[in-house]
Specification:
- The protein is built from 10 helices and 2 strands; from the N terminus they run ααββαααααααα.
- It has 279 residues and is mainly alpha-helical.
- It has one domain.
- α5 packs antiparallel against α10 and α9 crosses α10.
- The protein is elongated, with a radius of gyration of 21 Å.
- The protein starts with 28 loop residues before the first helix and ends with a helix.
């Protein structure tokens, strides 16, 4: 009727939540995963595929081209390997990192700041831990796809020097999980695209200096300590030890580093999502 005032658009009203873990986790992170897979299948699959080729190009240009000039390189345990076999596991770790970081930072930033997707999700029965686990799983899946494809390339080129190379797959999943959980936590504090550029600013030197292309021993002692604090260095050493068969007790420390990284990332992400959208 002409005299009836226009109604304001309805906004989602968050459902009442129980206290404790019930306010954080509804046990339905699969809903977030299903939505992400559907979106990737409909629009982003080509972008996902393109990310696989970057480390392959690095391996072919540096590992085979520069490797012909460098010759053999010693691992941390003193085992001599070809230069291609030295950098290939590092690029495998980098591949997992890049896949996980892309999904847990830029994708999450858009969903949070522009699509307002999480606001709608948390207006349902989903809790912040459901959203965090769902998004991190998607990032983990992307890192796993990149890493599995790259490991097959390494096998074809004869760069896997030990049967323990098969264990590089769970190691890569651990690396991707660590970067995804921490990446999402950091992204939750970002407000502009200019701030997001700091992620690339941090990732580039970490990629170049985490003993990716050179042994740690070539750096001065002070720089070595700094490199050993970087998460990618732990991932590179873990995967390199598995693919070359240069196993050591230090690999346990690399695994524990990522376990702590995952725990810290999950806690901060969950608390941050709750603060942003529920409190």
């Amino acid at each position: 009727m002409s005299g009836t005032p226009a109604r304001a658009p309805l906004r989602p009203v968050p459902k009442p939540r129980a206290g404790g873990i019930g306010s954080l986790y509804a046990g339905n992170s699969r809903a977030v995963i299903a939505r992400g897979l559907l979106a990737t299948r409909s629009s982003n699959w080509l972008i996902v595929l393109s990310g696989f080729f970057e480390p392959v190009f690095y391996l072919l240009s540096l590992g085979i081209g520069l490797g012909a000039l460098v010759g053999s390189v010693s691992t941390t345990t003193g085992q001599p390997v070809s230069y291609a076999a030295f950098i290939a596991p590092a690029l495998l770790a980098v591949s997992a990192m890049n896949g996980a970081i892309f999904d847990s930072t830029w994708n999450v930033f858009f969903k949070m700041q522009y699509a307002k997707l999480y606001e709608g999700m948390l207006a349902t029965s989903l809790g912040p831990l459901d959203v965090a686990l769902g998004e991190i799983f998607l990032a983990l899946l992307r890192g796993a796809v990149y890493a599995t494809g790259f490991l097959i390339v390494m096998q074809v080129l004869g760069l896997n020097r030990s049967w323990t190379a098969i264990l590089a797959i769970p190691a890569v999943l651990l690396i991707a999980f660590g970067f995804a959980s921490l990446g999402m936590a950091i992204t939750s504090y970002m407000k502009t695209f200019q701030q997001m550029d700091w992620i690339n600013f941090v990732m580039l030197p970490m990629f170049l200096f985490s003993a990716t292309f050179y042994p740690l021993s070539v750096y001065p002692q002070a720089i070595q300590w700094l490199i050993q604090a970087l998460p990618l260095w732990h991932g590179v050493e873990l995967v390199r030890g598995l693919t070359t068969g240069a196993l050591s007790v230090a690999m346990i420390g690399h695994v524990l580093y990522y376990v702590v990284m995952i725990a810290v990332g999950l806690v901060f992400t969950t608390r941050r999502l709750r603060t942003l959208f529920l409190d």
